[in-house]
Design goal:
heterodimer; A: 279 residues; mainly alpha; 12 helices; B: 349 residues; alpha/beta; 6-stranded mixed β-sheet; 4-stranded antiparallel β-sheet; 14 strands; elongated; membrane (chain A); ABC-type transporter activity (chain A)
Chain lengths: 279, 349
Amino acid sequence: MIILTVAGLTLKEAGRRKVLRSLAGLTVVLLGLSAWGFARLDAEFGGLTSGEAKVAASTVLNLVMFGLSLIAALGTAFLAGPTLAGESESGVALAMLARPIRRSSVLIGKWLGLVTFGGGFVAVAGFAQLVIVRVTIGYWPPRPVTGLALLAAQAAALLTLGLLLSTVISPMASGIVAVGLFGATWIAGVVGSVGDALGNDSVARVGTVSRMLLPTDGLWRGAMNAFQDPSLFPQFADGFGESPFLSEASLTVTYLGWAALWVALVLGLAGLSFQRRDL
Amino acid sequence: MAEVIESPAVWCSGLRKRYRKRVAVDGVSFTARRGEVMGLLGPNGAGKTSVIKMLLGLVRPDAGEVMLLGRPATEPGSRARVGYLPELFRYQPWLTAAEVLDLHVRLAGAAVPAADRRECLGLVGLADRAGDRVGGFSKGMQQRLGLAVALVARPELVVLDEPTSALDPLGRADVRDLLLSLKARGVAVLLNSHLIGEVERVCDRVVILDHGRVVADGTLAELLGGQELRLRLDDVGEAAEKRLAAAGVVTREGDHFVVALAGERDVPELVADLVGLGVRVHAVEPGRVSLEERLLDILRGEHGSAAGVDQRAAQEDVARAAGRDRRSFEESAAGAAGGDRRSAEEGSA
C-alpha cells in the first residue's frame, strides 16, 4: 500500500517537475530527425540491394534506439538522484519518514515509480520509432517487444544504480556518476567488441567484465540484437564485431538472470544504505 | 477498581549519538506523560533536534531506547499517532497544500474525512490556499502547512521542533492557541522552542539540555523554585505576624514584607486572614524567577534556587498577578505528584 502510494507520488513528481515535458520534447525532436533521416536513406540509396538496405536500416535503427535509451537512462538517473538524496537534503523526507512507514517501502516505491516511468517512456517512444521505420523504409524488427523490454531493463538497471548512489552522495553527483558509469560501460563494450574482432582476448575481456559489473551495455546489446534482421549475421559476420550498433548474439538466460540479480542486489544495498542514513 | 496505568507519550533512556568526533547527545533520558505539554530547552547545539530525530527514528541512536505511546520506537507502527513538524520544514513543492495533507493521511494509515482535512488547513490559516502548489508558498505559510501536516492524522503525540521560527507575531499567537487547544484535548506535545516565554506559558514540564546532556528536568514550579509574595502592610499585630510566619519565611523591611511561601496554597485566604486580624493591606504582589533567568542560571552552572526574583512581575497590576499566582499554585500541585517519579527515574538511571 505504502509502496504504491510512493510509486504514484514519484510518477506525479516526474509529471509535474516538467521532466515528462522535457523528455517528450527531446523525444519528438529525435523521432522527427530519424523520420527525416530514414526517408532520405530510402530516397538517396534507392539502389541498395535488399541485404544492404537491411544492414543500413538495422544500424540506423539501433543508432536512434541508442539515442532513446540514452534519454531514458539520463532522465531516470537524474530523477533518481533528487528523488531520494534531494528529499533527504531539503528536509522533505523528514516529515514523510516520521510517519509509520518503513524506509524500505519508500525506497521500493520510488524504484517502482521510476521503473514505470522509464519503462513507459521506452515503450511509447520506442514503439513510435519502430512505426516510423516501418512507414519510411518498410523494415520491421524481428523481436520488437523483447528489444523494448531490454531497453526498459537497461534504464531500470541504471536508475537502480542512481538510487544506490543517491543514498550516499549528493543528488547531482549521483546522477553524474550514474551516467558516467553508463557511458564508460558502453565504451568498454565497444572496446571489447573491437578486441573480439581482432581476436585479442584480453581486450575482449574488458567488454565482458564491464558488462558483468554494470549490465546496461549487455542489455543494450541484447536489445540491438532483437532489433536487427537475423538474416544479416551469416552474410556480414566479419563486420558485426566492429560495429557498436550491431550485435551478433542474443542474450543468454544466464545473463538475464545475472542482470535481474544485479538489480536486486543493488536495490538491496540501496535499502541498507538508506536504512542506516541519518536524516 | 483496578487503575488503568497509561503508558507515557514519550519515554527515552540513555540516548547517545556521536557524529564523528563530536558527541551530540550523551545519555539523555526523560519521560513525557500523555496529555502533557513538555518543553525541550537549551542553547544552540545542545542536541535538542538530534534527540527529537532519534525519538522519531530519523536518526539512529548509538545507544539508548525509545518508547512512543507505549510501543518501542523501532517499530514504525509506534509513530501511527504521532505528528511531527521538523525544524527544517519542506513539503513536496509540486503538490498542492491539500495534496500534501492527503499524502500524509495515507502514509499515516489514518481515516480522516475530507471535511476534517479542510478544517485542519483552516486551523492554520490556509483554507483559501488549499489548491495552491506548495512551491509558491512563503516560509511562514510552509511552516503553517507543516503544523497542519503534524495535526491532520489525529495524533496523540505532537512533536514540534521550532514551530514558530518563520512565523510573524500573529502566527506565534495562533500557535500558542493551538498548543493550548491540543493540551485541552489531552494531546501530548513535545515542544522545542527558543521562545522561552512561549514555553513558560504553555508547558507543564521542561527538560533542559546542554552539551547533549539533561541538566534539568521538572515541572515549571519545580524548576523555578518557591513562590514569593511581596506585601505592603500596616497595623501588623503579633497575631498577624504569626499568621504570616505560618505561610512561610518572612523578611521585613519597614512596612514591606516578603514571604517565601512554603505550604501556603491559597493567597486570597491569607489576605482575608490578615484583613480579619486588622491588618491594612496596601499591595500584594507575587514574585517568581522567570524561566529565562532560571535557564541562564542553569546553563551558567549557577544552581541557586532563589536567585533573581522577577522584578518585572512586581510591576504587573495585582489582579493580573493574582491570576498568574493561581496558575503557578496549580503547577506546584501537579509538580508535587511528578517530582517523586522523576527522582525515581534519576535513581534508576
